[in-house]
């Protein structure tokens, strides 16, 4: 039995590499056909079109898809962010005068995509700090170009993720506290493996097998981080040195409602979706 | 073979119509050799293009073998005044002639033999593998003639085909044309500025003139055939004809001015 | 005659468009392909109308068009003269060809990366991307247009002891104009596409960003509506360009003897009334 | 040939000079301080694992060739047909003008619906993109044919098929070659772009994975590899072009 | 004015060199009217192109006013045999003539007046706003002549300029050319296939022939000037010259075959 899986070739999809290398998929009797894609929305469309069976997507995208009545549900937990596994950070340039979040007033901040998880995070943070979020100018810059934009002075701060946080720090950039995605809570789901509900109903065995393999991989990563990081170098172009020093997301064994609910609420609050809904909806694998 | 009745040719320029030819009537019987003479710009080329079916007259009728001509008809071929641009630059000299024989059903071998024969008769055999842009003006013109002859069309429309040739080559080709015409029962319509040439070659000479151009007269030429470059030209009838035609041309032009 | 041609309504074209539209609607409403990804045309059109009336689409389209124009003009100003020069001088072409040939097959998406570092993330980067993409079709077509000039024109001008300026503006440029226009016709859609692409990769406005935003928020009908808007925008550009071309190259169609029509005549088509009209 | 040797060397010297400028820029930290690697680093990245690049280039070139073949067939056919049949042009023209400016990358989601995610996706999109310049140039080439050539062909009494083969195809060839030359570049560029979005294999995939992993030297090595591949493809094309156009007279056969 | 010494013209085709002209020597003094006759394809056009500085001979020297010619020099202009392609289709008839005067320093108004004068003298005044492609072959040729005359060059190289013209127009233009030549102290090198025309116009006639082509002889023409179409041609000296030249041409051609 094969399952066609779309993913983004970054460290976040570590579960997939580990499960493959450790033979967890084989143990479950499934073969995985991996398709790397650059953007999460593209994965979602390919899954909708039936060209992929499952895919990787950030939570906000899943929330927005649900709002648009796409038939997606979470197949297996993906990457979580917690305080000790902080993957996303706001960086400012070496020698920048910005020291607190409120200093960002009137400044330009680069995020990778407008209208998605990072814009909501900044907006929420601004509100929590008593600022008018419109005073922070958000511009779109792809992750790999952010450090360049920061160094050349085109932007004042960047909301970036690993490995660029580590790379940035090594070239002198400074992390701006608090954590960029702090508004989503102390522990929340950044991204997850998802599939169409109809597909899950039609292929319960494969779906379950995939889920178990991914969870086994999560366990492996948590217990053997060094080995997992080594595997990372084989599936991305990270150098071994960099792979050993970056912060990995947290790979939990199960998803609680609270891991998602705050994200849904904030998305609704800032009108990226029409109205909030219960996190359970994303976790229900059967169509209502 | 050709029958032209009250034909008119006009061009539209800036919404103004200028009439080039008006009320042109003449016939070209099968197997006839007709020459057309007339001042520069009087519409000879336009007339020939209409007869070839490339253009349509503004009014009047042109019939070929009793059918109205609306498109180039099989059996009529034309040698253009602008010979240089009518050769296919990407084909060799031989290729251009072979292209003219595309209707023939002969084998490739035979075709090449025939084509080479025609090239030899216009003195281009040694240039068969050159490209047209490697030929002199006169050679290009001879190539265009060879291609038309090779096409085997029963009717040849020739627009000043010998204009760029020296006297000797010209005389040779005149005789070649007459030979081919006599052999194959072809019909030839021949535009020229050389009145002597027109007389030497043809059965009758159509003199154009006036403004708009009309047929001044069709001069019948009863000089005996076969003709000889020296003898025929020495014939007193020849000079008579020449005088007549020159007279017609002068009166036509004066009328025009 | 030309004016009358333009006033004539192109029924064939309209019918063909209607046929395609009907096929689309059927494909979607009969759920032959997922209507979420391939929504019915009627839905897209209603989005298109809403977005147009609300002014969103015209605004983003205008932003993109301005960027495109800036890049395109820059490319024309640099590349047409360079193309003319390179077409006239084999030496110059040999000098720049390795550089040109290796640069021109770089995907604009890759070029944007260093461009971002050098030019930042603002307009100049996007305009540069447009410039870069439009430059090479313009350069090559201009160059080949110049090379294709019948040698006789050049020889004539030379024997008339034409000065360099006159040679350039009165001989080379007009004679190469058909080639230059071919270059423009190839370059304009490419410039438009790259303007959109640059806005998709890193932008805050323009139709490319709007497209990307719709795609990311799974607003598929809106995405299609935006795609339609690009098609309309590009179509309008093409029409404008064709008009400019036929205005600039009146002599060309006349020279080709088929004024108003630019098709080679097949014996069956009745083309021959074109220059000699019944009167 | 012998004569053109020195200016040709000049061309490569010119390119080398540009690389030198790049090197100077990085060495003196003028160029974006550390974000742009020096030519030396790029060379190291290139030679570090040559097999990686060779495989990627091979794959991309193969896909490009397939896409180019399809796009060229479509562009040539459409250009010739539009040049020859005015009715067809009037019928399909408006729709085609609308299709032309569609950004290939934005078409990916739509294309996925119809052709799936495999290699055929890259090929379809690259073929779509490269067909346009070929189409335009072929069409203009047909439009620009000296009408006396048609007149000649008609009075020779050739058939429609022969007219097409021996006159239209041949006479439009020089212009069509220009279109093909531009089209080949575009096919390659778009193939790489699609690979960048769906980074499975090829040069584009290498670029995306390198970028996402923050490996700048590798990213620029990939750009350099893409540039060299483009140069290579183009050189191969020029030979073909020269062979095809040598019969067309001095201005076409004089090309290098 | 011109001095050509042991000039050789050769073309390379498929790595084989074919020699077209060899050991050509002649002079054209200032104010001279030289005609060149020779069989088709003997290299007249190539020779004229070299004299115009458009091409270079394979060896030997061509000097104009004592300087070696390497590029088109001021004061020399050429009327091409392929006249149709030498007119700029994007310019009107008047525009084409004005283009020929691009070196003149006169005001626009004056230039137009001069240009119109030249157009009138070749009978094209009424077509000044047409485009060249709206003209007949002969009209195009006359336009090319008008442009060359208007350019005011002291030396005119003319390659079969009257080939496409009818007898009357031709005679008129011959006289026009002679008038202009006599007025302006111009030098003319005139290629033609019409031996009568060559004799009627020139001071001396260069007869080419042989294979590779060489100068057969330079025939001096002592016919009195001014010349008259009828009287001059009736002069017995005229027939003598004609016989001489025809003889030279035939012997040159037979040598060639
Ligand atoms: N580009 C070329 N390549 C090879 N051979 C050429 C080229 N141009 C001319 N020739 C050859 O040179 C010879 C002389 O050509 P040229 O045009 O000078 O003759 P011409 O005397 O002007 O003849 P005509 O009276 O027919 O115009 C011809 O045999 C021709 O085949
Ligand atoms: N496309 C056109 N548009 C307008 N007028 C034209 C066009 N073609 C030809 N004419 C005019 O038609 C007239 C006749 O032209 P045509 O070429 O038939 O003359 P011709 O008798 O062949 O002259 P020649 O002996 O000089 O070749 C000319 O006055 C010319 O100006
Ligand atoms: Mg004519
Ligand atoms: Mg000649």
Automatic annotation (TrEMBL), chains B, E:
Molecular-function annotations in GO: ATP binding; ATP hydrolysis activity
SUPFAM superfamilies: P-loop containing nucleoside triphosphate hydrolases
Domain annotation ABC transporter: ranges: 4-235
Organismal lineage: Bacteria, Pseudomonadati, Thermodesulfobacteriota, Desulfovibrionia, Desulfovibrionales
Protein name in UniProt: ABC transporter related protein
Organism, scientific name: Pseudodesulfovibrio aespoeensis (strain ATCC 700646 / DSM 10631 / Aspo-2)
InterPro entries: AAA+_ATPase, ABC_transporter-like_ATP-bd, ABC_transporter-like_CS, ABC_transporter_ATP-bind, P-loop_NTPase
UniProt KW keywords: ATP-binding, Nucleotide-binding, Transport
Automatic annotation (TrEMBL), chain C:
Keywords carried by this UniProt record: Cell membrane, Membrane, Transmembrane, Transmembrane helix, Transport
Residues in ABC transmembrane type-1 domain copies: 61-245
SUPFAM superfamilies membership: MetI-like
Subcellular location: Cell membrane
Protein's membrane topology: Multi-pass membrane protein
Main location class: membrane
GO biological processes: transmembrane transport
One Pfam family per UniProt: BPD_transp_1
Chain segments annotated as transmembrane: 12-33, 65-85, 105-121, 127-146, 190-212, 224-252
Gene Ontology cellular-component annotations: plasma membrane
Source species, domain of life: Bacteria
Family designation: Belongs to the binding-protein-dependent transport system permease family.
The name this protein goes by in its record: Binding-protein-dependent transport systems inner membrane component
Record organism: Pseudodesulfovibrio aespoeensis (strain ATCC 700646 / DSM 10631 / Aspo-2)
Automatic annotation (TrEMBL), chain D:
InterPro entries the UniProt entry points to: MetI-like, MetI-like_sf
Biological processes, Gene Ontology terms: transmembrane transport
ABC transmembrane type-1 domain ranges (all copies): 53-241
Membrane topology classification: Multi-pass membrane protein
Superkingdom, natural source: Bacteria
Protein location: Cell membrane
Bilayer-spanning residue ranges: 65-85, 106-135, 171-190
SUPFAM superfamilies: MetI-like (SSF161098)
Family to which the UniProt record says this protein belongs: Belongs to the binding-protein-dependent transport system permease family.
Record protein name field: Binding-protein-dependent transport systems inner membrane component
Native source organism of the sequence: Pseudodesulfovibrio aespoeensis (strain ATCC 700646 / DSM 10631 / Aspo-2) (Desulfovibrio aespoeensis)
């Amino acid at each position: 039995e094969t399952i066609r899986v779309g993913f983004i070739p970054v460290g976040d999809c570590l579960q997939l590499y580990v499960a493959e290398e450790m033979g967890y998929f084989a143990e479950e009797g499934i073969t995985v056909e991996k398709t790397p894609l650059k953007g999460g929305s593209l994965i979602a469309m390919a899954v909708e079109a039936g060209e992929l069976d499952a895919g990787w997507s950030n939570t906000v995208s899943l929330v927005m898809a649900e709002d648009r009545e796409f038939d997606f549900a979470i197949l297996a937990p993906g990457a979580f962010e917690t305080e000790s596994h902080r993957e996303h950070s706001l960086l400012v340039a070496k020698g920048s005068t910005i020291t607190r979040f409120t200093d960002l007033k009137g400044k330009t901040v680069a995020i990778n995509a407008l209208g998605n998880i990072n814009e909501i995070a900044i907006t929420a943070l601004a509100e929590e700090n008593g600022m008018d979020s419109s005073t922070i100018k958000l511009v779109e810059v792809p992750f790999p170009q952010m450090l360049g934009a920061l160094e050349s002075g085109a932007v004042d701060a960047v909301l970036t993720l690993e490995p660029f946080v580590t790379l940035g720090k090594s070239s002198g950039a400074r992390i701006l506290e608090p954590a960029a995605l702090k508004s989503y809570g102390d522990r929340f789901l950044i991204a997850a493996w998802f599939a169409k509900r109809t597909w899950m109903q039609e292929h319960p065995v494969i779906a379950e097998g995939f889920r178990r393999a991914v969870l086994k991989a999560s366990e492996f990563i948590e217990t053997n981080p060094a080995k997992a990081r080594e595997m990372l170098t084989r599936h991305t172009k990270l150098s071994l040195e960099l792979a050993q020093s970056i912060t990995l997301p947290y790979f939990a064994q199960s998803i609680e409602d609270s891991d998602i609910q705050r994200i849904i609420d904030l998305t609704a609050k800032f009108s990226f979706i029409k109205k909030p809904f219960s996190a359970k909806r994303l976790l229900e694998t059967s169509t209502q | 073979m050709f029958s032209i009745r009250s034909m008119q040719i006009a061009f539209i320029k800036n919404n103004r119509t200028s009439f080039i030819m008006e009320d042109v009537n003449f016939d070209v019987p099968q197997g006839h050799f007709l020459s057309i003479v007339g001042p520069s710009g009087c519409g000879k080329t336009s007339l020939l293009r209409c007869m070839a079916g490339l253009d349509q007259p503004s009014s009047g009728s042109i019939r070929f073998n009793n059918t109205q001509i609306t498109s180039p008809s099989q059996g009529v071929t034309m040698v253009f005044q602008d010979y240089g641009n009518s050769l296919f630059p990407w084909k060799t000299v031989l290729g251009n002639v072979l292209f003219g024989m595309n209707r023939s059903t002969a084998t490739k071998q035979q075709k090449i033999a025939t084509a080479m024969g025609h090239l030899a008769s216009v003195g281009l055999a040694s240039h068969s593998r050159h490209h047209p842009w490697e030929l002199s003006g006169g050679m290009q013109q001879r190539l265009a003639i060879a291609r038309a002859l090779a096409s085997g069309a029963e009717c040849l429309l020739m627009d000043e085909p010998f204009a760029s040739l020296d006297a000797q080559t010209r005389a040779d080709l005149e005789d070649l044309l007459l030979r081919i015409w006599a052999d194959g029962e072809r019909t030839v319509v021949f535009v020229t500025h050389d009145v002597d040439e027109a007389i030497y070659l043809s059965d009758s000479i159509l003199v154009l003139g006036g403004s708009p151009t009309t047929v001044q007269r069709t001069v019948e030429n009863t000089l005996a055939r076969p003709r000889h470059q020296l003898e025929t030209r020495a014939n007193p009838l020849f000079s008579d004809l020449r005088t007549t035609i020159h007279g017609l041309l002068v009166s036509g032009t004066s009328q025009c001015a | 005659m030309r004016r009358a041609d333009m006033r004539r309504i192109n029924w064939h074209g309209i019918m063909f468009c209607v046929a395609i539209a009907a096929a689309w609607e059927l494909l979607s409403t009969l759920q032959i392909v997922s209507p979420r990804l391939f929504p019915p045309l009627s839905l897209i059109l209603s989005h298109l109308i809403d977005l147009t009336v609300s002014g969103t689409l015209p605004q983003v389209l205008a932003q993109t068009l301005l960027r495109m124009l800036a890049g395109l003009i820059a490319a024309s100003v640099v590349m047409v003269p360079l193309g003319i020069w390179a077409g006239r001088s084999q030496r110059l072409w040999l000098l720049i060809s390795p550089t040109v040939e290796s640069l021109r097959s770089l995907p604009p998406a890759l070029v944007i990366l260093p461009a971002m570092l050098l030019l930042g993330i603002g307009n100049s980067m996007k305009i540069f991307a447009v410039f870069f993409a439009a430059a090479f079709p313009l350069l090559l077509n201009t160059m080949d247009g110049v090379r294709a000039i019948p040698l006789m024109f050049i020889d004539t001008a030379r024997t008339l002891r034409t000065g360099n300026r006159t040679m350039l503006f009165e001989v080379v440029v007009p004679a190469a104009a058909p080639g230059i226009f071919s270059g423009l016709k190839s370059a304009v859609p490419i410039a438009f596409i790259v303007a959109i692409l640059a806005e998709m990769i890193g932008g805050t406005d323009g139709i490319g960003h709007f497209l990307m935003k719709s795609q990311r928020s799974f607003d598929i009908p809106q995405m299609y509506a935006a795609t339609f808007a690009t098609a309309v925008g590009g179509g309008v550009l093409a029409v404008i360009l064709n008009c400019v071309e036929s205005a600039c190259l009146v002599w060309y169609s006349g020279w080709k003897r088929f004024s108003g029509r630019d098709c080679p005549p097949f014996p069956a088509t009745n083309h021959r009334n074109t220059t000699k009209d019944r009167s | 040939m012998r004569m053109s040797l020195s200016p040709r060397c000049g061309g490569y010297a010119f390119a080398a000079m540009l690389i030198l400028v790049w090197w100077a820029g990085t060495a003196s930290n003028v160029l974006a301080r550390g974000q742009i690697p020096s030519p030396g680093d790029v060379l190291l990245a290139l030679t570090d694992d040559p097999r990686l690049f060779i495989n990627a280039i091979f794959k991309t070139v193969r896909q490009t060739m397939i896409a180019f073949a399809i796009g060229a067939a479509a562009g040539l056919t459409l250009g010739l047909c539009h040049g020859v049949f005015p009715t067809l042009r009037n019928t399909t023209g408006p729709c085609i003008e609308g299709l032309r400016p569609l950004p290939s990358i934005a078409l990916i989601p739509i294309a996925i619906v119809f052709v799936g995610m495999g290699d055929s996706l890259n090929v379809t999109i690259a073929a779509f993109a490269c067909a346009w310049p070929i189409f335009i140039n072929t069409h203009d080439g047909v439009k620009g044919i000296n009408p006396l050539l048609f007149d000649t062909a008609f009075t020779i009494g050739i058939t429609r098929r022969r007219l097409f083969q021996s006159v239209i195809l041949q006479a439009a060839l020089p212009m069509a070659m220009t279109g093909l030359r531009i089209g080949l570049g575009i096919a390659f560029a778009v193939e790489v772009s699609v690979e960048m979005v769906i980074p499975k294999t090829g040069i584009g995939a290498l670029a995306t994975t390198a970028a996402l992993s923050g490996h700048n030297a590798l990213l620029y090595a990939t750009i350099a590899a893409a540039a060299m591949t483009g140069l290579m493809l183009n050189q191969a094309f020029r030979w073909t072009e020269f062979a095809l156009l040598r019969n067309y007279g001095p201005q076409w056969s004089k090309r290098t």
